[in-house]
Structure formats: structure tokens, C-alpha cells
Specification:
single chain; 172 residues; mainly alpha; 2 domains
Length: 172
């Protein structure tokens, strides 16, 4: 039996389909402007690239964390953090700040990795607290906790990488 209100209003699938088509049209129309904007080198474009890299590497973190969780939340967290951090640092060096010719790989890992240690301590503490108060939290809650803490630490990383660890410009 079909719900009477759906008979009067149409199917939810039709509404979802319309929304998907409208969104796809908007994306196709907006993609060139968005791409051009992301290619600029001002602070807003760099921050947008920083957030995109953070989103991708957070996805990598989540996949690794879930895959390694059987070894314990802390071991999974440490390995997932190490791998996703090295990837994020390299993507930030090459894409976010376009510093691959000015900053060597090891220097980027060392400087950004130093800031990441603060994040690792903060997220590990948050996961430990969560585990203690929830008696074995669900993976989605653990990942959400790490994402929230990482977002705050990520903002600190952006400031550090953008203004503190910025290489001196070459003399004219």
C-alpha cells in the first residue's frame, strides 16, 4: 500500500531525482569559475585548497582507522595519523602552498609534522577520554571526535604553514 500523502504530492524519488539533476547542472556551470578561483594564490584560495586536502586525507585516515581498528583504537589512530599526515604534508607542499620548488620534502615533513604532534596528542587524548567515558565507542563516534579535534588543529596548522613556516622571499 502506498502512503496517501505520496499519491497527492508525488514520489520522494522524483524530488530526489530533480534535486540531483539541478545539483549536477549547477556543478557543471560553476566548475570553471570554481577551478579558476582555486588556482589563485591568495589566502582564501590557499585555505580552500587546504580544506580540500584535509578532507581527502581525513578520508584516508578514516579508511585506515576502520581497517586497523581490530589492533586497538590507539594503534589504529597512530598508524592512520602517520600515513594521512605524510600525505597531507606532501599535498600541502605541492598543491596548497605550491612550495615544491622552495621547500624540500623532508623540511615540509619536519615543520608540518612538528605541528601535527600537537594534533596527535590532542586527538589521542580525546580518543582516550571518549573510550573511558563510553566504554568502547563506536568507530563513527571515534572518527567524528578525531575530525572535530583535527579541524581545530588544522586551523592552527594552516596559520603555521601560511605565515610562520613561510620561506623568506628571494632578494630582488
Amino acid at each position: 500500500m502506498t502512503c496517501p500523502s505520496l499519491l497527492r504530492r508525488g514520489h520522494a524519488a522524483d524530488a530526489v531525482g530533480d534535486l540531483a539533476r539541478t545539483t549536477a547542472q549547477w556543478v557543471r556551470a560553476s566548475a570553471p569559475q570554481l577551478t579558476a578561483r582555486l588556482r589563485q594564490d591568495d589566502t582564501a584560495a590557499q585555505f580552500a585548497r587546504f580544506v580540500l586536502v584535509g578532507a581527502v586525507t581525513t578520508g584516508v585516515y578514516a579508511i585506515l582507522f576502520v581497517a586497523l581498528r581490530s589492533r586497538g583504537y590507539l594503534a589504529a589512530h597512530l598508524v592512520a595519523t602517520a600515513v594521512s599526515t605524510v600525505l597531507a604534508n606532501e599535498l600541502h607542499r605541492r598543491l596548497t602552498f605550491r612550495a615544491d620548488e622552495r621547500v624540500r620534502w623532508f623540511t615540509a615533513q619536519w615543520e608540518a609534522g612538528g605541528v601535527t604532534v600537537i594534533g596527535l596528542l590532542a586527538t589521542s587524548s580525546a580518543l582516550g577520554w571518549l573510550d573511558a567515558v563510553t566504554d568502547g565507542a563506536q568507530p563513527w563516534l571515534q572518527i567524528a571526535t578525531v575530525v572535530a579535534v583535527t579541524a581545530l588543529v588544522g586551523l592552527m596548522r594552516f596559520v603555521a604553514l601560511r605565515w610562520i613556516f613561510r620561506p623568506e622571499p628571494a632578494p630582488a
